[in-house]
Design goal:
Helix content is 36%, strand content 16%. The chain is of the alpha/beta class.
Length: 338
Amino acid sequence: MGKGTWFILIYQKPFNKEIKNNEIQKGGVIVKILVTGGAGFIGSHVVELLLQDEHETIIVDNFSTGKKDVVPSQAKLVEMDINSPKMEKVFALEKPDVVIHLAAQVDVGTSIQNPVYDADQNILGTIRLLNYCKKYKVKKIIFSSSCAVYGETEDSSISESYPLKPLSFYGLSKYTSEMYIQLFKDLHEVPFTILRYANIYGPRQSSEGEGSVISIFFRKILVGEAPVIYGNGEQTRDFVYVKDIALATLMAINKGTNEIFNIGGNTKTSINELLANIASIASVQITPISMPAREGDIQHSRLNSTKAETFLGWQPSYDLLTGLSDTFNYYEAIMQSK
């Protein structure tokens, strides 16, 4: 989330007020859902699934990184900033049943250079939404957290019980938001599901954020430039396709109340291996530019998602090569259309 104007996308259905076992029921029941960041990279894919599933949805986005051309034609747009007191009027008018909170400042470098801005967007923005959830009796908030909350994990598969020690202010802001969400549940009975995403990639991703290395590599290759590798390139990441992330988020509407889940593939790919795969898909030979490791970057990250499989019924369906091929086709089509 950044400075600018936010918009509200509304897509609505009658809601059955009966909730069993603290879960929001589907199956013929139409739930009104507010999605912050709904015109962004992850949010736009979440919205597509919500519409396909015939949910009525409210989406908030300031278009600092989101794109208006991904907002469905049936969407109703209302200008709004979620850090503005006027945001309360949206809750008062629409009374959403569920909030999916995806809007955030997601760049590690920006968080280190400007921690005040990062905290304002990620921590205070979340607190304001929680206050509205409390006041207007929202039945669940689904929060997009990050593997960055764990910090350095060595080369191991990490579960949700792994100690949290963020290395960046971005990771700290996500961790702090998680704590506020859990306390709002304890003190004010605001149900939640927290999803700690691995490194996400796929169509519509900008060149900022934790998983953006794939987007950057493809964009560089398509314009004939050499991509940059920071450090020795042997750092590993757990890359997960955005459509798998969107599906996990959708599943959390009805399951996993008051739980925290890792959403990843439990796989590790080095940056050097990633670039080799991308070069093969693009049918090019590449010599990357080497740069020193960046402050706040972790060496290894791999999420064990057994809990999500057990409680949400989720597991990734896209392997890395399939997801990379789809992503390359997307960026290549964009370049050819210019």
